[in-house]
Design brief:
Chain lengths: 360, 296
């Protein structure tokens, strides 16, 4: 929803025309009309079918595990999309809410033997409550300063987690968190977890779809477009921003709870700044102001991080390089106006041929 | 012995590190004044300055001043490249995208440095001896005096650059009134390009000054960069004097905090100060030309 710069065709687009064409067949276009997004489309059925069949068609544990992580990242990215994509605010401390969710579940299940479902709901509540307390003072900031303040909050969260070993286990973390279980059914394999997590994700996606169509969702878009204009027509901008922040945090709480149950550990390394950067990248690459985009971005980047893991010490430089290249090539998200850009490319080739003919 | 007895010693240590924060903060302010961009890779310049000098000194066998000079020049070139390759193509993009791009550059620079120069923390030899001086009951490492002196010289240089030369005035103009600067024929892109060079150079000098006192490791840049930014916000965003004051205040407070709270919380102190200042006085101690205190 950010005022995207209408970019002309550039020669370097030629380098990715073939992958672009493949992507344009399956990737969602965030530039669609928002009203259309909440309607049923045949494409949704295709996505759903692909999701259901994917783990059955490739019975590979590593792939299942990867998709479980991708699902958790997708929940995070979906929540941040409401805050960053729709409301247009930056948060570099989203990993702290993820961590809050994970630690709430870890503490409730290992110390007090709560059922995982209760812990799951409590995690979202805890993250949302924390977001409300934090958001109230710092959401009056804008742009870079909001980014810095949320980053500071994330760092403080990490320091507190590391320095209170009685509560959170310090640097070592908490071990032995039980599998997620529902009415006696335990999700103990990657396949079962896959369906659990993507099921939760679909539920949250439907919620977000309806939210975007509601008065609140429209208010998010209005605040992103212009805070002054929104407050002129009587919207309570501060409350709307806090609402988006709390919702994003609650999603992150759900994701954190699922993460703790899947990994069965919670330690501070998992909730650092690099995770916050990764989530923002998912939202940006998926396209801001779009619900399907962040999910696609989450799958893409989780897969990328997994591949890079094989290159050991070279993984971080390559990762930084790829992030920059992706941002420079697709600042509006990978799916945005893919069709239009493709038409540009084809017409460029046409023009070039014609030019050459004239010169001859 | 009560914690109060350590206070003068802690303050003198805080002022040394504060000078470095001030230099990093000035780097942020220099770029922001030319373009309203915040370069989150600023801390990496500091790290690279120290690490490249170490490398040239130990492996290359160059004499100390020459190694330092080559390091500063190469970091300035890295700063120019950062502008040409990352910031310039994204000059019209929105804030989150630029933010992520500079953070990506920061990841790339720090990990590449770890790969090329090794991941072990590095310490340069001090400029002039290890014998600490005793002034009025406080022990001071000679390197601290070097840091303060060099910082002062850099400040004078920066002041002359921005107030006494046409180039500095052009930089100032392109920040305060972009359209007016365009009409006067000032190339804003060139100004931002030069600002990146200046701030990279300052970062590199800060890195060379600090490496003899504190160990510089390949991943130290991010934290130094953030603290420099906090210093600039604390003193008053967009003002050179603000960045300097903020740097010294932040360094002193952070250093003093060790006496009163467990040292594990030391890194959180700067961020707590940041949240407090952003909440109660967002324009900083000295006020900021860019931030209106009522609404921003």
């Amino acid at each position: 929803m950010v005022d995207s710069n209408q970019r002309e065709f550039r020669k370097r687009d030629l380098f990715y025309v073939v992958p672009l064409w493949f992507l344009s067949l399956i990737l969602p276009d965030p530039h669609l009309d928002h009203r259309k997004e909440s309607r049923f489309r045949w494409r949704d059925l295709f996505y759903l079918g692909a999701l259901l069949l994917l783990p059955l068609m490739w019975p590979d544990t590593h792939l299942h595990h990867l998709m479980v992580l991708a699902g958790i990242n997708a929940i995070l990215a979906l929540g941040l999309s409401l805050f960053l994509g729709y409301t247009g605010q930056i948060s570099l401390g989203h990993a702290a809410f993820f961590g809050t969710g994970a630690y709430t579940t870890a503490i409730l299940t290992t110390r007090y033997a709560f059922p995982t479902l209760v812990a799951f709901l409590a995690s979202a509540l805890a993250a949302a409550a924390l977001a409300y307390l934090i958001g109230k003072p710092i959401l009056k900031l804008k742009g870079y300063f909001l980014a810095l303040a949320t980053l500071g909050f994330g760092e403080i969260f990490l320091v507190i987690v590391r320095e209170s070993p009685n509560l959170t286990g310090g640097v070592i973390g908490i071990f032995g968190i039980p599998w997620f279980s529902l009415a006696g059914f335990s999700f103990d394999t990657y396949l079962k977890q896959y369906y659990l997590i993507w099921g939760v994700l679909i539920g949250l996606l439907l919620f977000s779809k309806n939210l975007i169509r509601s008065k609140m969702g429209r208010a998010f878009l209005a605040v992103a477009a212009s805070e002054d204009a929104a407050s002129t027509v009587g919207m309570k901008v501060a409350q709307i921003k806090i609402g988006a922040f709390v919702l994003g945090a609650a999603f992150a709480g759900f994701a954190g709870s699922l993460f703790a149950c899947v990994m069965s550990t919670a330690n501070p390394e998992a909730f650092s700044l690099s995770l916050s950067i990764l989530i923002i990248m998912m939202v940006i690459l998926g396209g801001m102001g779009n619900l399907y985009g962040p999910i696609a971005g989450a799958i893409l980047l989780t897969w990328l991080v997994d591949i890079l893991g094989k290159y050991q010490e070279y993984s971080l430089p390559i990762y930084g390089l790829i992030l920059i290249l992706l941002l420079i090539s697709f600042p509006d998200g990978i799916g945005t106006r893919l069709n239009i850009r493709l038409i540009y490319l084809i017409s460029y080739w046409g023009r070039k041929k014609r030019r050459e003919r004239v010169e001859l | 012995m009560t914690p109060w007895a350590y206070i003068p010693q802690l303050i003198s240590a805080g002022i040394t590190i504060g000078a470095i924060y001030a230099l990093v903060g000035l780097g942020f302010v220099t770029i922001a004044r030319a373009s309203q961009i915040i370069n989150f890779a600023q801390g990496e310049f500091v790290m690279l300055g120290g690490v490249i000098t170490f490398f040239l000194l130990k492996r290359g066998g160059l004499p100390y001043p020459l190694a330092a000079l080559v390091a500063v020049i190469s970091v300035v070139i890295i700063g120019f490249l950062l502008h040409i390759l990352v910031v310039y193509p994204l000059r019209k993009a929105s804030i989150p995208i630029l933010l992520m791009a500079t953070l990506g550059a920061s990841i790339f620079l720090s990990s590449t440095s770890g790969l090329t120069f090794g991941t072990l923390p590095k310490a340069l030899p001090p400029f002039s001896g290890n014998q600490s001086l005793q002034i009025g009951g406080i022990f001071i490492v000679p390197q601290s005096l070097w840091v303060l002196g060099a910082t002062f010289l850099l400040l004078v240089f920066l002041y002359l650059l921005s107030h006494r030369t046409l180039l500095g005035k052009a930089m100032e103009a392109s920040s305060t009134d972009p359209l007016g600067a365009d009409l006067l024929g000032i190339s804003r892109n060139l100004m931002v390009f030069l600002a990146f060079g200046v701030s990279a150079g300052m970062g590199a000098i800060a890195g060379i000054l600090i490496t003899p006192i504190f160990y510089t490791s390949y991943n130290a840049g991010t934290m130094l960069g953030l603290k420099g930014f906090i210093a600039a916000v604390l003193g008053g965003w967009g003002k050179n004097s603000g960045a300097i004051l903020g740097g010294f205040v932040l360094g002193a407070v952070e250093s003093l905090s060790v006496a009163f709270i467990p040292s594990g919380y030391k890194d959180a102190v700067a961020f707590v100060i940041l949240l407090l200042i952003l909440y109660f006085r967002p324009k900083g101690i000295l006020g900021s030309p860019y931030i209106d205190s009522r609404r921003w």
